[in-house]
């Protein structure tokens, strides 16, 4: 029994027609930092298409790697949702497929440094009947209207890691 890990880069994200995070490229002192800037006042969403190769069973963990653009306190609520299609089996229209019920997690800024890197795990338990080899769309949102999202300013998403069992 092993764990499969899939890294998702912000540069591979896709966006709907409205309410999406901005692309950010900061020329740091020693290297560039590319991220998605999720607003602190309105819900924004980004999407990734992911083949779930080797999926066995159980929940999927989505680790969100992020930092605050300007804040040094408060919480950020992240939401994830999956839509799964089994190629050659499911008859669902890919252009009208809906997402399973979303899962959320709130992370609290650890303070002192505004641009400190944080991670939070969102346990995806609403799996949309996912099976090995499915094509999966992952939606990641920030929910600034959630009671736990108290951080002002942008939350900068650096990347995502999906982890799941291969058995």
Please report the distance between the alpha carbons of the first and last residues: 6 Å
The biggest beta sheet, please? 6 strands, antiparallel
The whole-angstrom Rg is: 16 Å
Question: How many helical elements?
Answer: 0
Beta-strand fraction estimate: over 45%
The number of strands is: 10
Poorly predicted regions are none
* Mean pLDDT across every amino acid position: 96
Proportion of residues in helical segments: under 10%
Note the run of SSEs as H and E: EEEEEEEEEE
Q: Which oligomeric form is depicted?
A: single chain
Structural class given helices, strands, pairing? Answer: mainly beta
Principal-axis shape equals: globular
Can you put this structure into words, describing what you see?
By secondary structure, the protein is mainly beta. The chain contains no helices and 10 strands. Strands 1, 2, 3, 5, 8 and 10 form a 6-stranded antiparallel sheet that branches. Strands 4-9-6-7 form a 4-stranded antiparallel sheet, with no helix packed on it. β2 and β3 form a beta hairpin. The termini are close together. The model has no long low-confidence stretch (mean pLDDT 96).
Describe how the helices and strands are arranged:
Layout: E1 3-8, E2 22-27, E3 32-38, E4 44-51, E5 57-68, E6 75-85, E7 103-108, E8 117-124, E9 135-142, E10 155-165
Antiparallel strand pairs: 1-10, 2-3, 3-10, 4-9, 5-8, 5-10, 6-7, 6-9
Pick out its properties.
mainly beta, 6-stranded antiparallel β-sheet, 50% strand, single chain, 4-stranded antiparallel β-sheet, 167 residues
């Amino acid at each position: 029994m092993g764990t499969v890990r899939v890294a998702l880069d912000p540069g591979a994200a896709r966006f709907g027609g409205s309410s999406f995070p901005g692309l950010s490229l900061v020329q740091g002192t020693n290297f560039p930092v590319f991220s998605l800037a999720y607003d602190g006042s309105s819900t924004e969403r980004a999407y990734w298409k992911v083949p779930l190769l080797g999926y066995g069973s159980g929940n999927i963990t989505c680790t969100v790697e992020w930092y605050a653009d300007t804040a040094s306190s408060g919480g950020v609520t992240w939401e994830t949702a999956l839509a799964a299609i089994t190629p050659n089996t499911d008859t669902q229209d890919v252009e009208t497929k809906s997402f399973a019920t979303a899962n959320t997690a709130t992370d609290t800024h650890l303070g002192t440094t505004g641009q400190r890197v944080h991670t939070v795990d969102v346990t995806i338990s609403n799996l949309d009947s996912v099976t090995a080899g499915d094509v999966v769309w992952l939606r990641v949102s920030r929910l600034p209207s959630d009671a736990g999202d108290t951080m002002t300013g942008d939350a900068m998403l650096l990347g995502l890691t999906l982890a799941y069992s291969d058995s």
